Amino acid sequence: MKVPHTRLSTHMSGSAKATEQRLRNLFARHKRPALILMAVVALAIGLCGGLVACRSTTQAGSFTMDTQYYDALGNYIEIPRLTAEGEGAQEVNQALAALKSQYQTVMAAPMNTVGGQRCLFYPAVTERYDNLIFYLDSASSGSDGDLYTLVYDRREDRAVTLTEALELAGTTEDALCQGAEEYLNGELAGTEVPLAAQNGAVTGFRIRNDGGVEFYLSCMTDDAGPSVDAADSWQHLLVYTDGSWRHYHGKAAAPLTEKLLIPAEELARFDTPLWYQWGPSGGEPEGGFAMEWISPQVEEQVLQYMEDYLGYSEPPMELILRASFNDLSRLDLAEEWRDMDALECYGITYGANGTYVGEDLLFFRKGEGYTFVGSLGEHDSEQVEPTRLAAVGTYNYRIMYWMLAQGILTAFPEANVMLRDAPMPLAARSAAVAYFYSNRPADMSIFFADQAPLQPAEHTMRIDEADYLGLRLLNETYGVVYQLACSGYEDGSWYSYPEPLWLVFQLDQGGDMTTVLGESVPRETVEQAALEQGYHLVDGEIALWRDGYPNPAGPGSEVGFFREKPVVTVLEGAEPIYQEGDWWQQMEWEGLSTRCYCNADGSYAIQRLETTRTDLFTDRGIRVGSTRAEVETAYAEELFRSDYWGLYPGEDCLWYCADPGGWGAAVLFFFDGDQVSRIVLNNMFD
Predict the structure, then answer these.
(1) In whole angstroms, what is the distance from residue 80 CA to residue 56 CA?
(2) Where do the DSSP E strands lie in 271-411?
(3) Model pTM score
(4) Where in the chain is the domain with CATH 2.60.460?
């Protein structure tokens, strides 16, 4: 999860690479196949109502509890607010509101979320300071969680900054990060797979009653050697106090004292107990967990299913509503189901052979009546999307494939039909925000308009609209294009970005749309934008395709339509070199050669491609052997007959480039008499 960034919050230190790695831990898919990391259902479908919140009447320090929410899906949200009226207190409350905004959808519609989202509050109050410490976690692998802290000085009505905390403790951020890595490397010594600590970062702090400072840090561990990929990376949480370190295992099964980040005797207590007072010992919140009301009809039919098909006469240990699909339009349902209002998915848990088993059961709802449809089988932990069974999430595809096999659906809906006129899928919204956090300045906060805080911080990017434009097939996936209208917040006011941007997502065969391929300014066609971002082309029209192969090659991309290995020649002394360790090289196959810029990680991008092969063709169908008339018909008035940058004086050549000056990607056609004898693709960059 990307915690809300304000000038009050502790920033994530370290290099850009470290920041990106921390974001990846919370947003991206890990190598553990059964789990998907999502931001704390970040930036979801709307700030809708129906929150389940308890308000405490007992104050501690200068704050009271604003939200306490606990449900049966493991979502626990605890967020306070300051009761002081000063300017500093209001700024802290703005930061707390931004934090709360990221959980609105979890609390409003928990059945349509993954579950397991935690925002646990540790209220450490001293004579002078309110330490607001939050442990953040999600249903994910790859991380011990994260920490977000705000420290409010009641005496001076202001938030304490990390710089001040470091000065008070007589240390530096670099020293703490280095110490974290050294401590963790000591813990890792002797592991079967050699591991190393890296990217230590200060994530927060608190000021104790004795004036000392306790710091919280995150630190990654991964394979010790860059050429080895034997273990998954993991983000650890460490605590530094007065020269000593300890490892906080927030997810580990441990006694009460080890489960708490801060000792209970240093924490404020409320009329409605916080998680730290009941959770570590295996208890329940006051009043129990929030549950969706289950219709007696559903309960009765579930019992009948269990008796008939599972051999159980007892009710399930757990029965919860996991997803509710309230818009069935545009789905080709069999005639007997066409007048239904909704399709609902319920999860049951029961004991079998000494273990617990979970199944997903489908029901159609018409008015207040329910009809059991069947069992999908064991629980799927993937994200649940509520929009029209069509918001393109793995869970939706699973349901639709099952319904098609059962004859409930008469035809599988095309992706284009499902996405048209539907809100951007929740998974895509989360992916978009994760992408922008990785590709925008580190101090920028990013929200969708329906979740932007009322009082945003400076350098906020707001996504006002996200409109589906279309898609294009990319080999075995689709490139899905959305147009985003955005605003920025600077100097206390909003301003609109001068033009929209296009964001291209990857939609794979399973319906997963959690990867952003890239962004671009609006292009001539949606297909062109998808092609460029899907294959990293500078210009979708400046590429060559090979007969029988699905992927192109051109400036910006790699060559993927040869099985034969090329002859590689490193071009010593070639310029320019943008990063240390990069180089230029030439790659040659029969009838084709490329000049490529190579990155230190081994990837490369074509800068110039030249071919005399007859099995390669442009997107307008021109290949070696085509006639001059065919070239002129295909490119018409867009062709240039002038010399191209003085590179081919005296040669018979026609060329096309989107830029009249020849900048960017261009395709050149050389003739022998009336036929194309050679095709050159070139990227002329300034």
Answers:
(1) 10
(2) 318-325, 342-352, 355-366, 369-378
(3) 0.63
(4) 545-684
